[in-house]
UniProtKB/TrEMBL annotation, chain A:
Keywords: Chaperone, Mitochondrion
CC terms in the record's Gene Ontology section: mitochondrion
Protein name: Blast:Probable complex I intermediate-associated protein 30, mitochondrial
Subcellular compartments: Mitochondrion
Organism: Drosophila guanche
Family matches, as InterPro entries: Galactose-bd-like_sf, NADH-UbQ_OxRdtase-assoc_prot30, NDUFAF1
Automatic annotation (TrEMBL), chain B:
Coiled-coil region: none
UniProt keyword annotation of Iron present: no
Taxonomic lineage of the native organism: Eukaryota, Metazoa, Ecdysozoa, Arthropoda, Hexapoda
Protein name from the UniProt record: Evolutionarily conserved signaling intermediate in Toll pathway, mitochondrial
Source organism (scientific name): Drosophila guanche
UniProtKB keywords: Cytoplasm, Immunity, Innate immunity, Mitochondrion, Nucleus, Transit peptide
Pfam family for this entry, one: ECSIT_C
Domain annotation ECSIT C-terminal: ranges: 254-384
Region (Disordered): 35-57, 389-420
Length: 295, 420
């Protein structure tokens, strides 16, 4: 029902075919062709020989991973007690080759803006997400607002490239040790679903940074995160399904004249169970009037 | 009436002399298309555009955007122009184009954060005409252009962080009725915007003051919230005799940092590092830190004291066979918040000129104001600017590489014998 209502949003965009004049691919049905919504870059495919060689090389690693999974299954020794005040680190920037797990994107990737960004190791040994956001953009008459940079983890997966999700249901706090520059950053928790309508489900909250030379530990309850899709906050909200988290990321934007350099140093991102926090969802869940939701 | 006449004079001083004698007739002479003239003006500059168009710029009506051509760009002029448009004729033709043109030129007039102006623009819309009278009209977005126009207006408000009020709801209800899409947008804004407005744990004035000193104070205060006992001092370099730059210095230091500085080894150097930057809303402030390398010995000692709680191989029974308390189990020093893993931070400052000389003055002022031990420790400058030009501007044109430079500029102090 929820999905049907959100489909209604697309209905309003419908126009007679004669009036259409677009420079981009037109969405004629509810169905979306691919997850990138037209932003997929076509990369040249390697030769068949190369593919076979790569596949065989990966196979070794995948079998190793699969063996680990099977042993874990047989051992059957899950963590049952989540002690309060103990942080379980999920993304540790002091671990080796951590930077391969993240993807950096900016508006310049598709020729829509002029922002630059990079994720590197800082002098303190932590991850440094830095660059410059720029709200000037190519004046093509279609793009209205630009100026963002973004980092995101790669999709969590099991062996043999099978997609899986994080299961964070036992925790209720997100802990981050960061050192920022006074800007506010957006924390994105992607809960990508199976159907095309759920491909862009992202839960957001703001990370305010103090700035200055001291490290800062931000503790944010998961109950504060709110749902949005393609940058629009949704009418029908709900607490984040913590067993369906697929990606984690940060965004920064050049909004309200904040064009210029930015720098966010991240030591780790962790999770915690805090028994004193009983809130499930921070926003009202009252019934919205019929035919108003998602229109 | 007088105000309007004056305004019109400013607007039409170059073109129509009629307005001098008859202010009433001028509005009729105002041109009808407000948004098209931007393209037209471009067309004049670009010869290709003339060729490409079927009739060239000749066939286009003579159009002019009052917002683009207005000479006196103030809120008063802006509101007067909106008022003139409203009173020009009964039909208010092209009001959608007028609102779009008005929205586009808001930042030029400096009114993009003003709720009153947005209300004045909504007031241009006729009341009661766009309210759907039956179910089908309500369902299929009655008067879509007009509705989309006001949705875009609300979106612009959202982008600039202007929160609507209840009067705006009443206005929108009068224009579009309670099934209108702008109303839905308004209700969403009124649900979410108050929730996000005061979320920041470091609240800042909106807008932030224009004075750099005030912003620097805000920045240093914000950085010093890490230690509640921090004190912010504003020094003037005039207080010193041999300062070259005359400027201000905002310095933040807490008693705890003073204590750490007192206890700091006289053999280990202090570094002045920077410029780093901090954002205070949309203003950027450069700041410098006085720090030393981390006291590895002390930090290692803290790690040693920590017990592995998961290790169950050797559980101490507290009743018998209890070993005598070892030295590290006795009262020890606690780790201060300023003793970070990558260095101990003693003070933070922002200066008016960000020059080396002003930083030298800062060190002298710190020494004079309760930290005499700085005089006994070597202080090194380490500028780590990623922008070479900026670092050159600060350091002066030297042959030192711009990215990172250690320069012992206070050899005077280093030569002095330590008093201990």
């Amino acid at each position: 029902m929820y999905n049907l209502l959100r489909q209604g949003q697309r209905l309003t965009c419908w126009m007679p075919a004669a009036q259409q004049m677009h420079t981009t691919a037109v969405q004629r049905t509810f169905w979306e062709r691919e997850k990138k919504s037209g932003y997929k870059t076509k990369l040249p495919e390697p030769s068949k020989k190369q593919l076979i060689m790569d596949g065989l090389r990966d196979l070794k690693e995948e079998i190793k991973l699969w063996r680990k999974e099977v042993t874990e299954q047989l051992e059957s020794d899950p963590i049952l007690v989540f002690r309060p005040g103990e942080t379980d680190v999920v993304f540790d920037f002091k671990a080796p080759d951590v930077l391969d797990k993240w993807t950096v994107t900016t508006d310049a990737d598709h020729g829509e803006g002029k922002s630059t960004a990079a994720l590197e190791l800082s002098a303190a040994g932590a991850g440094l997400f830095h660059g410059e956001v720029n709200s000037n953009h190519t004046k093509d008459g279609i793009i209205k607002r630009t100026g963002y940079a973004n980092i995101r983890t790669k999709r969590v997966r099991k062996s043999f490239k099978r997609e899986s999700t994080y299961d964070w249901t036992q925790y209720n706090m997100l802990i981050m040790k960061v050192r920022g520059d006074g800007r506010s950053y957006l924390i994105n928790l992607h809960t990508e679903g199976y159907f095309d309508l759920m491909w862009n489900d992202i839960y957001h909250y703001v990370l305010y940074t103090r700035g200055g030379p001291h490290w800062q530990i931000a503790k944010i309850p998961f109950s504060k995160f709110f749902l949005s899709s393609k940058g629009r906050v949704q009418d029908r909200q709900g607490a984040i399904p913590l067993n369906r988290v697929t990606h984690f990321g940060f965004s920064v934007a050049a909004k309200k004249g904040m064009d210029g350099p930015f720098g966010l140093e991240i030591d780790y991102v962790g999770l915690e169970y805090d028994p004193s926090h009983r809130e499930e969802f921070a926003y009202e869940m009252y019934q919205t009037p019929k035919y108003i939701v998602a229109t | 009436m007088l105000r309007r006449a004056q305004c019109l004079l400013r607007m039409h001083s170059s073109t129509s002399r009629q307005s001098l004698c008859a202010a009433q007739r001028v509005p009729v002479a105002l041109h009808k298309h407000y948004s098209a003239d931007e393209a037209n003006r471009d067309g004049k500059q670009n010869p290709n555009a003339k060729r490409a168009g079927t009739g060239g710029s000749k066939s286009l009506p003579a159009v002019r955007n009052v917002f683009a051509t207005a000479q006196d760009k103030t809120k008063d002029t802006y509101l007067t122009m909106v008022e003139i448009f409203g009173e020009r004729d009964v039909h208010r033709r092209n009001h959608v184009e007028f609102i779009y043109a008005a929205l586009k030129h808001m930042p030029d007039f400096g009114v993009e954060n003003d709720l009153e102006v947005y209300k004045a623009l909504i007031n241009v819309m006729p009341k009661g005409k766009f309210i759907p009278t039956n179910l089908f009209q309500a369902e299929f977005m009655h008067y879509p252009k007009q509705q989309q126009c006001i949705i875009d207006l609300l979106e612009q408000m959202e982008d600039f962080g202007v929160m609507p009020d209840y009067e705006m709801e009443a206005m929108l209800l009068n224009v579009f009725g309670n099934k209108g899409h702008p109303l839905r947008k308004y209700w969403r804004m009124m649900y979410w915007m108050p929730k996000f407005k005061n979320l920041s744990p470091w609240p800042l004035p909106n807008p932030v003051p224009d004075d750099t000193l005030e912003i620097a104070k805000l920045a240093v205060e914000r950085m010093c919230t890490v230690d509640l006992r921090s004190q912010i001092n504003v020094f003037e370099t005039k207080e010193l005799n041999d300062a070259v730059d005359e400027t201000w210095i905002v310095s933040g230091m807490s008693p705890e940092q003073s204590k750490l500085l007192r206890e700091h080894s006289r053999q280990k150097a202090l570094y002045i590092e920077g410029p780093f930057h901090i954002w205070i809303r949309n203003r950027r402030i450069n700041y410098f830190t006085l720090r030393a390398d981390a006291d590895a010995e002390f930090l290692a000692q803290l790690d040693e004291r920590q017990l592995d709680e998961d290790d169950v191989s050797n559980i101490e029974v507290p009743f018998f066979g209890r070993p005598p308390p070892r030295r590290h189990n006795q009262l020890g020093k606690l780790r201060s918040v300023h003793q970070q893993d990558d260095g101990t931070i003693f003070a933070i400052c922002a200066t008016g000129t960000s020059t080396k000389d002003s930083l030298l003055s800062w060190i002298r002022l710190l020494e004079a104001n309760g930290n005499p031990s700085i005089g006994e420790v070597p202080v090194l400058f380490r500028f780590t600017s990623t922008v070479p030009a900026k670092s050159e501007e600060i350091e002066g044109p030297t042959s030192v590489p711009a990215t990172s430079s250690d320069s012992p500029s206070r050899s005077r102090k280093e030569d002095e014998p330590s008093v201990s």
